[in-house]
Amino acid sequence: MNPTARLLVGISGFAAYLPCYRVNLEDWCRWTGDSWEKVSSIVGRSFRMRAPDENAYTMAATAALRLIQAYDIDPRRVGYFALGTESSTDNSTGAVIVKGMVNDALRALGGPPLARQCEVPEFKHACLGGVYAMKAAARYVALDGADKLAIVVCADIAEYARGSSGESTQGAGAVAMLLEAQPKLLTFDLARAGSASDYRGPDFRKPFARYAGQTPSAHGQIRDFPVFNGKYSTSCYLDETLLAMADLFAKDSATASTARWNETAAAFLHRPYRRMAETGLAASYLLALARGGNEGCAQLADLARAAGVDPAALLAELQAWPQLYDPLGDATADPYPATLETLRALRAHPQYQRQVLDKMRFGDSAMHECGNLYTASMPGWLAAGLEEAAATGASLSGASILAFGYGSGDAAEVMPMTVVDGWQTAAARIGFSAALNGAVDLDQTKYQQLHDSLSLENAVAPRAATFVIERVGCAHPRGGLDDRGIEYYRFVK
Question: What's the CATH code, domain 9-492?
Answer without folding.
Answer: 3.40.47.10
